[in-house]
Every structure is written in structure tokens, then in C-alpha cells.
Design goal:
The protein is mainly β and about 150 residues long. It has one domain: Lipocalin (Beta Barrel), CATH 2.40.128. Helices cover about 5% and strands about 50% of the residues. It contains 1 helix and 14 strands. The strands form 3 sheets. Strands 2, 7, 8, 9, 10 and 11 form a 6-stranded antiparallel beta sheet that branches. It has a 4-stranded antiparallel beta sheet with strand order 1-14-13-12, with no helix packed on it. A 4-stranded antiparallel beta sheet has the order 3-4-5-6. Strand 4 (about 45-50) and strand 5 (about 55-60) form a beta hairpin. The chain is globular, with a radius of gyration of 14 Å.
Length: about 150
């Protein structure tokens, strides 16, 4: 089990969600709006349209986010350098969230999310360390920073 604790520099602690609904096979991969391979080439994160509207994120063919049915749109996916996590910005009904899916090898993925304050541009994601992500108008200009600690039990 992976436990993740986090904090945002401008907000409260994240909401944690366990990932898990299984995804479909090759036909689902063909429907992916975005496919992002990890830097080591071993894993693939995909953004796919959902049957009830909105989009979902899949890791190696398994849906890892969201864990509800609210329609969402998803921005660019950015992998960590260690290939054990990826981050993206999600939008639903005018609310924006930074979502990080922590997925070390051999452990079920866990998703953490932080609300992004109104007026904070969220077009680019920058990994600032193994467990620290910034989001802002450009890669070198993060305005909101989230960090967390992971423990494998």
C-alpha cells in the first residue's frame, strides 16, 4: 500500500484517491487523445474520452483517475525524471486541480490532487524534485507548488 502525504504552498493538504478501475484493450488505446511515454520507455500514461463524458487518465491500460464520474478535461501530462509519477492539470466546471499520480513499480498507483487558486495560470507543469511539482504559465515560471512524502508499507 502506498501512503502519500502532501501540502500545497498556497492551500491545504491534498485529497487522496486510490486508483484502480481497469481499462479496455487496444481499442481504448486507439481512442486516446494523448499518449505520453515515460522517459525510460517502459510505461504509458494516456488521456481518454469517457463514456459518460469528460476524460480519464490511464496508466499502462488501467484507469487511475478520476475515481468518480464527473466530466473533466485534462491538460498536458508530465512524467517525473524517475518515471515513478506523473502530473497533469484537470478542469471541471471551472475548477482547476493539479493531480499527481504516484506509481512506483510493484505498488498500486495513488492519485493526489490540489485545488489551484482562481487566477493562477496553469498551462505548464515543472518537476522541481522527486516529490515536488510546480504549475504556472511557463515551465520556468511555476506559480503554485505542491510537495508530498511517500511511504511504501
Amino acid at each position: 500500500m502506498l501512503a502519500a502525504l502532501g501540502a500545497l504552498t498556497v492551500l491545504a493538504a491534498p485529497t487522496l484517491g486510490a486508483a484502480g478501475a481497469t481499462g479496455a484493450g487496444s481499442s481504448a488505446a486507439a481512442r486516446a487523445r494523448m499518449r505520453v511515454t515515460s522517459p525510460d520507455g517502459r510505461r504509458v500514461a494516456e488521456v481518454r474520452s469517457q463514456p459518460r463524458g469528460g476524460e480519464g487518465v490511464y496508466l499502462d491500460g488501467r484507469r487511475v483517475w478520476p475515481d468518480d464520474s464527473a466530466p473533466r478535461s485534462i491538460g498536458v501530462v508530465a512524467w517525473s525524471r524517475r518515471c515513478d509519477a506523473f502530473a497533469f492539470v484537470s478542469s471541471t466546471r471551472g475548477l482547476h486541480e493539479l493531480v499527481v499520480v504516484v506509481a512506483p513499480a510493484g505498488v498500486a498507483p495513488a492519485a493526489m490532487r490540489w485545488a489551484i487558486p482562481d487566477g493562477s495560470p496553469a498551462r505548464a507543469i515543472t518537476w522541481l524534485g522527486p516529490s515536488r511539482v510546480g504549475v504556472g504559465p511557463a515551465l520556468l515560471d511555476p506559480k503554485v507548488v505542491a510537495s508530498w512524502q511517500s511511504q511504501v508499507r
